[in-house]
Amino acid sequence: MRVMGIDPGLTRCGVGVVEGRPGAPGTMIAVGVVRTDPEAGLADRLLALDDGLRALLDEHRPEAVAVERVFSQHNVASVIGTAQASGIALLAAARLGLPTATYTPSEVKNAVCGNGTADKRQVTTMVTRILRLKQAPKPADAADALAIAVCHLWRGGVKSRIAEAAASQAAAVAAAKERTR
């Protein structure tokens, strides 16, 4: 499975593409950052982010997109910008009909480090090891995006299978009720 992980940000939006399967190390396909001009107007920045993400989606053709879930910070302006960038990322994937998932920072840290309170250095170290990279990905936004992709690669398949099983069971229960009427 090929997964694009996105660490949303209005100025720097980390993007990492990983290919692999649950439980296996995986392979980094691409890593980078989509940047927007902090001096530009908000609408222009969101458009630039959308253009950049859409180009990367077209280039790398992931089967799924995973985005870091926005979490509360003390800086409200930062949260708003991150939420707007997250919305653009989810929209860009939805336009292509790609399945999407969101993960909290602690879910990502737990998936790649085994510790939901790991620091950025630990996450970068583990991503470098998991993907067998010769050097750590930089900047931190890019390393975080790879961690998000790995998290989905390892956990997303399980989540979707559980959801499919629950839907199948609900359909079977509904069919059984219908037969007894």
From TrEMBL:
A Pfam short name: RuvC
Gene Ontology CC: cytoplasm; Holliday junction resolvase complex
Binding site for Mg(2+) 2: E68
Binding site for Mg(2+) 1: D7, D141
GO molecular function: crossover junction DNA endonuclease activity; DNA binding; magnesium ion binding
Biological process according to GO: DNA recombination; DNA repair
Catalytically driven reaction(s): Endonucleolytic cleavage at a junction such as a reciprocal single-stranded crossover between two homologous DNA duplexes (Holliday junction)
InterPro entries: RNaseH-like_sf, RNaseH_sf, X-over_junc_endoDNase_Mg_BS, X-over_junc_endoDNase_RuvC
Keyword tags: Cytoplasm, DNA damage, DNA recombination, DNA repair, DNA-binding, Endonuclease, Hydrolase, Magnesium, Metal-binding, Nuclease
Cofactor note: Binds 2 Mg(2+) ion per subunit.
This enzyme's EC code(s): 3.1.21.10
Primary localization class, coarse: cytoplasm
Signal peptide boundaries: none
Catalytic center residues: D7, E68, D141
Gene3D superfamilies in the cross-refs: Ribonuclease H-like superfamily/Ribonuclease H (3.30.420.10)
Cofactor(s) essential for the protein: Mg(2+)
Localization per record: Cytoplasm
PANTHER family (UniProt xref): CROSSOVER JUNCTION ENDODEOXYRIBONUCLEASE RUVC
Function: The RuvA-RuvB-RuvC complex processes Holliday junction (HJ) DNA during genetic recombination and DNA repair. Endonuclease that resolves HJ intermediates. Cleaves cruciform DNA by making single-stranded nicks across the HJ at symmetrical positions within the homologous arms, yielding a 5'-phosphate and a 3'-hydroxyl group; requires a central core of homology in the junction. The consensus cleavage sequence is 5'-(A/T)TT(C/G)-3'. Cleavage occurs on the 3'-side of the TT dinucleotide at the point of strand exchange.
Membership in a protein family: Belongs to the RuvC family.
Assembly with partners or alone: Homodimer which binds Holliday junction (HJ) DNA. The HJ becomes 2-fold symmetrical on binding to RuvC with unstacked arms; it has a different conformation from HJ DNA in complex with RuvA. In the full resolvosome a probable DNA-RuvA(4)-RuvB(12)-RuvC(2) complex forms which resolves the HJ.
Name of protein: Crossover junction endodeoxyribonuclease RuvC
Upper taxonomic lineage: Bacteria, Bacillati, Actinomycetota, Actinomycetes, Glycomycetales
